[in-house]
Amino acid sequence: MEEIHRQLEVFRRGCVDILPGEKALIERLEEGRPLRIKLGVDPTISDLHLGHTVVLRKLGQLQELGHEIDFVIGSFTARIGDPTGRSRTRPHLSAEEVRRYAETYQTQAFRILDRERTKVFYNAEWFDPMTFSDVIGLASRVTVARIIEREDFARRLAEGRPVHLHELLYPLLQAYDSVALRSDVEIGGTDQRFNILAGRDLQESFGQPPQIVLLLPLLIGTDGTRKMSKSYDNYIGITEPPLEIYSKTMSIPDEIMLSWFELLTDLPIARLTEIKEGLADGSLHPKVAKKLLARTLVAQYHDEVQAKDAQESWEQLHEPGGSRGRAPLDVPEVEIPPPTGEGGKLWVVEFIDRLRFTTRKGDPISRSEIRRLIQQKGLTIDGVPIESTSAMVEPYDGMIVSKGNKQFRRVRIPEGG
Amino acid sequence: MEEIHRQLEVFRRGCVDILPGEKALIERLEEGRPLRIKLGVDPTISDLHLGHTVVLRKLGQLQELGHEIDFVIGSFTARIGDPTGRSRTRPHLSAEEVRRYAETYQTQAFRILDRERTKVFYNAEWFDPMTFSDVIGLASRVTVARIIEREDFARRLAEGRPVHLHELLYPLLQAYDSVALRSDVEIGGTDQRFNILAGRDLQESFGQPPQIVLLLPLLIGTDGTRKMSKSYDNYIGITEPPLEIYSKTMSIPDEIMLSWFELLTDLPIARLTEIKEGLADGSLHPKVAKKLLARTLVAQYHDEVQAKDAQESWEQLHEPGGSRGRAPLDVPEVEIPPPTGEGGKLWVVEFIDRLRFTTRKGDPISRSEIRRLIQQKGLTIDGVPIESTSAMVEPYDGMIVSKGNKQFRRVRIPEGG
Known about the structure:
homodimer, alpha/beta, Rossmann fold, Tyrosyl-Transfer RNA Synthetase, Structural Genomics Hypothetical 15.5 Kd Protein In mrcA-pckA Intergenic Region, Chain A, 3 domains, 6-stranded mixed sheet, 5-stranded mixed sheet, 18 helices, 13 strands, 43% helix
């Protein structure tokens, strides 16, 4: 019983909800065997970001308790995509693409999970052999009313926007994965509540004990408002270079810092409480706390040495009174030949243009964008915003220029220039 | 053009609706080729009744114009049935049962249609090979809103009664049959409006010219109120014996007689008008008209001689002032040994009991039911209702006893009795 309560602590930490309740989970744990804990994986994810790690870190903790982690790669659905072509979130992928994506996903996920104690399934294995008649049998187990309760369906139907009939079949797919694997527990973000509960219903209709649902919060992105997502460009990829992770973390609003500590780090609960209290009574400066968070995250996905270096680089750029002057690490160098006219100076727009900053999409930024960025104080030289679009710049070797707090360039003046 | 208008007359007669309009039909006829005209056949029908013949007779007329009739036996759906077991109208049939039903259906249908100019398809041919992924592709072509517009779905959802997800797939099946056959026209009763229109939409989404919809009225049954249906026991099967067809026809209310003439006979329109006017101005007695209808129907499904005999038998039973006395045809004989006591008489309940009349379900009627029938004037001897449950009867050879106007018995007194 003591062991079960120890386990319960781990299940519970950071969870938004355990459905239908902790009692069901306790009963399942009392069976004394490793539980089959399922995570449905969208194989269109190429790069894991911190948002994905919330669930993966929880799985890592449960794995350490001796439970079995089942990854289900949604290979069947991904291969079909959305036949209407209307859904951006359901591109059609070839079997080869699915396999490649799934491998990239696993390589990254196994930075957090133990590969040896994780089983990987592709759901095409059970959906490919199904006939039309099997589909009808499956669909007969759920009611239309129950499916169109789902928030996005209900809203679109109410607004008169089209919901195509095949979309109603998708929740059944994820639900049937739990039947195929006889899952004891399914884990997901709060946005998965409906789909995971559908799995319970379907398991019951197949005479299986319904899985327990573990819902975790959605991580707020670096913008401090929306959930972290590639499409909102408010994410930090776990394979990004140390300084990127560090800088982006330093850019988050203070308000979400504590939830990042809780969901993304292994700091003990006692330490979290200290930080929380320190911030509340003013004895801990938010910037100091945030530096701890940023450094902890870099250390998790790189190592302690790189975390320290990233911190120093960041401080050089953002704290001019500090150890400014030393060239930061990890910053791409751009060679700028010394200007010949204008007393060795360059027009600022011309200068920035040569540094080849890029847009979110990766295209070089245009001159009109450069002007706009300057007006918005979005470009800095050695941490100081450029004030005017008509300024003249005298480049020197080691000068650090940044666009926002995400892209950095170091100027190099060629030898003998 | 004259030819097309002649054809249009045939298409139009008795039709409730031609969708999207006659213009579309004219354009299709102008292509100058035989049109593919589809009828979806529910293979759970074992005995055709007059209600089914409304559509079949129309197909017979169109066939004579040179068009191709395509029967689609719903073998796929019938084999699946309703997996929830909730729908009485969707029993699960084995492949062998479907085949047997379909053959019975065809044997009967070819009393009306020309077998040589009718093609028969089983839709399992195109649905059996479909995979889950094909089903998703198919379902993606329709919207949920469009499907749940269908009256029975809309009503059940509004009333909070369950609609199971697979049910939404069924209209797609019938619709896809039209795609598989590239149908030019689909014919059906007015209750098929939604399903046949769904075929148009699906054909368009497959880039085919959408079929023209021919809707025929539903025949009112012998009770004069509800559509003819086996489950309402208000039907006349086309394989029933002559006297049954004749008697049941004579039992219909006068109000529906004209629609029966129009939908079930080949009488020319001019003749129909005469009958209509005769009934309206009182120059034609309804009973005379109804006898013409009854005799015409018997002649259609048997022959002229049997039609004449049936009429005579009926008249003997129902018109005591007429040619009463001669034994009717087709009436089961029951041997009654001459009673020994009571002056050669039998108690009426005892007498009727020996005649073994049956209930609708085919069980022998009980003595208490006999009493009730007598009280309701539902039993006649030689066309005269039995007045009292305490009457005494003296049976004689050739006595005709009837229960309602559907069951008849002829008494036979054994020789030397």
